[in-house]
Write a structure and sequence with these properties.
heterodimer, A: 314 residues, MetI-like fold, B: 525 residues, alpha+beta, D-Maltodextrin-Binding Protein, domain 2, twelve-stranded mixed sheet, Nickel import system permease protein NikB (chain A), MetI-like (chain A), nickel cation transmembrane transporter activity (chain A)
Chain lengths: 314, 525
């Protein structure tokens, strides 16, 4: 296990290096820079000289590769730099937003598990019967309703019509419910189907028949024996979902005034706030690689056959 | 079997852990401002208003965010009145002693939220802090040095700066207590700045909301409200729903398509007022074709301003008659130019174009085709482009529309366009100098096509050296006349500011400048 982690850490550094280089070059190839926004040219009189002076101060007149080198050198000192437009260090901005994103990710996953596991299990158990039809309709609806629309519908119903839950903001648990539902419902639709397919496949395996023959209770066969095998593909996909959730969910964050990483990244891209974009890419790269490592390790937990290195006898 | 059960326990443990951690993370975050803030009603003792703004504020640093002044926490030396004229506020009078020297008299009897007295020295310290914190402010004030003497503040500028009083309207020039900042530390101060306004900060959650309470020692009469919740949400539909559910009392920038629904509710209404922005067409005079004023004028005739205001803006806009809204002291008061395809064709014929057999305008066998670039950041602009495209087609002019991401960069770098739909605040501080200098003077930040016009330049030189208000208005109008004759732009519409409000809010109206939102006078029924 330690070996795997060591190897992954090395891979991580290489991945992050190329990721940041690629982002930096692409960013610089795209037209525009943050100078006009920094000088607030849409409200204040700015001259060409002011612009050129600022560009020079920021080092935009140097070749791209030199600019990247400067950023990298700074990074080696664990300094992510200073945001051009937010007026604070990149690390501070990211660290302010990361907990909000983690909360939203956890909330979304919680809702997903809460709905997808029972729904997927029931529809596999009662294949072709009422629960299965219900789950199919739920999945179809959930997968086809766009996120922003789902969010607005939830706000309309629970915050406007029924007035049970707050409409926006972050701080209390009640304020977490609607954003979590918005994220979780769509995912639950996908995962309930995935789980159903996995369960159906493993239910047709010989060992299930053997388990049933031994007189093991049906719920046990389903939730212990079949579930383990069915979870493998689910966990794989889940790893990818978590990765994208950790990168932030722009729509949900905007709807609920949720200060997550997604809106930060998108506005940084529009504003060409390069240090923020670079910091964001590094962080999400790190998180995605980390989550994938966890997913790989969890395979071993679920399936003992994976745990043993090749050639070793059990 | 045993190992199976064992793994299963781990699985369950994993799930439980996931659920617990979710709950834990949620519980960890502060829950001080529980549900109280969400409830619309209040007792007699508490008069509260909830406002939702359409932009976020990550910090309340008054020298880097406009929202602090908007929320009634800080104030400036001078302010704009409803006629967009500069009036006294924390300064009671000001005069230009010579070309580079201004003397401001600071109001007596004003105290900051921490109880310290406002005097010229405090203003000087605040300006020094602002200039260090904001390059933008430094660039617009052009201060060389300051001298504070009791209530008199002498400002010496680096160059003649007749527009200084109007530049001081800038929210970045807000006066704060620098002594309070020293005591609290900059970070804490930026979350709860100490100013002279009618409200002080109780709690600020970046990008989400600020909770404000009345400052009892306010110099201009204690505020009638005792609490304000000042929220931020960038989704217009959610803002409209918050108003309809009575969660919010004042909501900025309501989508025009929800106006009718809001008006149906007897407890709500919508204020739609002409703002200080102008949507317009910008012509690329780097292209030989667009250098011909007759071609530019022809397109100008093809722009249906009434339809833009009525159909594109759904009535929430005023047809434009020039760069400046007619409600401004120097705004153009002429009638709106109606669309006229015949005039357009006449001008194009003068410029050597002829209608060909297929009904297209052509010159030397080449049909008149214009490239128009537009962008989606302001959703009305692409619609204005489409309207122009269809009206131009009727007159035999083909317009190809392309969508770009960043207009500022595109205008400067890409020379392939003839027309761009553009939008600017033309008089953000109640003075025309900013827009005229930026858009028509060589090197100006809005002059991406390097437009130059001798007549305008010479008027601007005079304007930039004039401090007398009446004279400035006259010169601004003269410059605008030259602009209208030469048609470097075609002004389409002044978009309205649409503010939804609950009828329980009294003694309050949104202003076109969008600066003075929370006031001491606003009240609730």
């Amino acid at each position: 296990m330690l070996q795997i982690i060591k190897k992954r850490a090395l891979q991580l550094i290489i991945v992050l290096f190329f990721l940041s280089l690629l982002t930096f070059v692409l960013m610089k190839l795209a037209p525009g820079d943050p100078v006009l926004l920094m000088l607030e040219a849409d409200t204040f009189a700015v001259t060409q000289e002011d612009e050129d002076a600022l560009r020079k101060e920021l080092g935009f007149d140097k070749p791209v590769i030199v600019q990247y080198g400067m950023w990298l050198l700074q990074l080696l000192k664990f300094d992510l730099g200073y945001s051009y437009l937010k007026g604070k260090p990149v690390l501070e901005e990211i660290m302010y937003r990361l907990p909000a994103t983690l909360q939203l990710t956890a909330g979304g996953l919680f809702v997903m598990v809460l709905i997808a596991v029972p729904l997927g299990t029931l529809s596999a158990r009662y294949r072709g019967k009422l629960p299965d039809h219900f789950s199919r309709i739920f999945a179809l609806t959930g997968a086809s309703v766009p996120l922003f629309w789902m969010g607005l519908l939830l706000i309309y119903l629970f915050a406007y019509k029924l007035q049970w839950l707050p409409m926006m903001g972050k701080g209390t648990i009640t304020q977490m419910i609607l954003p979590s539902l918005t994220l979780g419902l769509g995912m639950a639709a996908e995962y309930s189907r995935l789980l159903r397919a996995g369960l159906l496949e493993s239910l047709s395996e010989q060992y299930i028949r053997a388990a049933r023959a031994r007189g093991i209770a049906e719920w046990r066969v389903l939730s212990l024996h079949a579930m383990r095998a069915a979870l493998l593909p689910v966990i794989t996909v889940c790893g990818m979902s978590i990765g994208s959730l950790l990168a932030g969910s722009v729509v949900t964050e905007t709807l609920f005034s949720w200060p997550g990483l997604g809106t930060m990244a998108v506005s940084a891209i529009f504003e060409r706030d390069y240090p923020i974009i670079q910091g964001f890419v590094l962080l999400t790269g790190l998180l995605v690689v980390g989550v994938n490592l966890l997913v790989d390790l969890s395979y071993g937990l679920l399936d003992p056959r994976i745990r043993k290195p090749k050639g070793e006898l059990s | 079997m045993n190992s199976l059960l064992h793994t299963n326990k781990r699985l369950i443990a994993l799930l439980v852990l996931l659920m617990l951690s979710t709950a834990a993370i949620a519980a960890c975050s502060s829950s001080e401002n529980a549900n109280k803030a969400e409830q619309g009603g209040e007792s007699d003792a508490e008069k509260k208003v909830t406002v939702i703004r359409n932009f976020k504020a990550a910090s309340l640093d008054p020298h880097n965010s406009f929202e602090t002044l908007r929320a009634g926490i800080v104030e400036t030396l001078v302010r704009l009145d409803e006629n967009m004229e500069v009036q006294e506020w924390l300064a009671t009078k000001w005069e230009a002693v010579d070309d580079v020297t201004w003397v401001f008299t600071i109001r007596e009897g004003v105290t900051f939220h921490d109880g310290t007295k406002l005097d010229a020295a405090a203003v000087k310290a605040s300006f020094e802090r602002g200039i260090a914190a904001s390059e933008v402010l430094a660039g617009s004030l052009k201060i060389a040095s300051m001298e504070a003497n009791g209530s008199e503040l002498k400002i010496i500028t680096t160059e003649p700066h007749p527009a200084l009083p109007s530049e001081l309207v800038n929210p970045y020039a807000s006066v704060i207590s620098v002594t309070a900042e020293k005591e609290m530390g900059t970070e804490a101060f930026n979350n709860a700045p100490v100013g002279t306004g009618p409200f002080e900060v109780v709690k600020f959650t970046p990008n989400i909301e600020a909770e404000l309470t009345r400052y009892d020692g306010y110099w201009n009469g204690k505020a009638k409200l005792n609490k304000v919740i000042y929220k931020f949400n960038e989704d217009s539909n959610v803002r409209a729903l918050a108003l309809q559910s009575k969660d919010a009392d004042i909501v900025y920038s309501v989508p025009s398509e929800t106006v009718a629904t809001i008006e149906q509710d007897k407890e709500l209404h919508v204020e739609s007022i002409a703002g200080l922005r102008v949507h317009y067409l910008l012509y690329n005079q780097q292209k030989p074709l667009m250098q011909d004023v007759r071609v530019r004028k022809a397109i100008d005739w093809l722009l249906d301003r009434q339809s833009v205001a009525k159909d594109v803006m759904l009535g929430n806009g005023t047809p434009a008659t020039g760069p400046f809204n007619s409600s401004l002291p120097f705004g153009s008061k002429e009638a709106v130019q109606a669309k006229n395809g015949d005039e357009a064709q006449k001008l194009l014929e003068e410029a050597g174009f002829k209608l060909n057999s297929s009904g297209k305008m052509e010159k030397d066998g080449k049909a008149l085709t214009l490239e128009l670039a537009t962008y989606g950041a302001r959703p009305e602009l692409p619609l204005i482009a489409q309207l122009l495209q269809s009206d131009a087609a009727k007159a035999g002019v083909t317009i190809n529309i392309s969508t770009i991401e960043n207009a500022d960069t595109y205008i400067r770098e890409n020379k392939d366009w003839d027309i761009v739909t553009y939008s600017n605040l033309s008089a953000p501080r109640g003075d025309g100098g900013y827009f005229l200098n930026s858009a028509f003077m060589p090197g100006g930040s809005l002059n991406g096509t390097n437009y130059e016009n001798e007549a305008i330049t010479s008027i601007m030189k005079k304007l930039n050296a004039t401090s007398d208000i009446a004279e400035r208005i006259k010169l601004t109008q003269e410059a605008v006349k030259e602009v209208m004759d030469d048609v470097p732009h075609s002004y389409a519409v002044y978009p309205n500011l649409i503010v939804g409000m609950n009828n329980r809010v009294t003694d309050w109206k949104p202003g076109p400048e969008e600066y003075y939102i929370i006031t001491n006078l606003m009240d609730v029924k």
